Amino acid sequence: MQTIEANCLPPRDRHDQVHDLGSGSNVLETVTGSGRLITDAKCRVGSTGIGVSIDACSRFLSIDLPLTLRSRRLDPNDVLSKCMNLLDSDFVDRVREIAGALRTYDYTLVIRRLITVPADERDDIFPKLRALLTPKGLIIVNMSAHFKADLSATNDSTPMQFLAPVSQPRLYRGA
Length: 175
What we know:
Blueprint: H1 4-7, E1 8-9, H2 12-19, E2 27-30, H3 36-45, E3 51-55, H4 58-71, E4 79-83, H5 91-96, E5 105-111, H6 119-122, H7 125-131, E6 133-142, E7 146-147
Parallel strand pairs: 2-3, 2-5, 3-4, 5-6
Antiparallel strand pairs: 1-7
């Protein structure tokens, strides 16, 4: 069975937004997975920008992320990381407690996470993410992905969250 990471790729336009990051920007990525996007982001923001990686799976943060960073000739300590869940009630406080992390970020990447959250819980996520953004910060989200494998209900390797229909995302406009 292949992992979700092996079966889907972030849409090109979302990936290109990461490439538009400027030097010195600060980036928070939730649900890092193998760390491809935060690694790309860290390469773009350079040594003056901060990259923080959050994932509920400690294996991604302890094994996959360092390997991805090393493959791009970055030190694994160049990106701060913490194992936690975006749905935790104290998510914002726990992100701010990470040693070396900031209180707010220029960009928050939430690629593919929203499709794994039940529809009635999605609205709770945006105020948390907004609290971690600078006044002109940007949340980059995605409600779909490009799949390299058959994700029909008849395929046993299809993750359950991809079998249920997903409503269109609503924009959250903070104060």
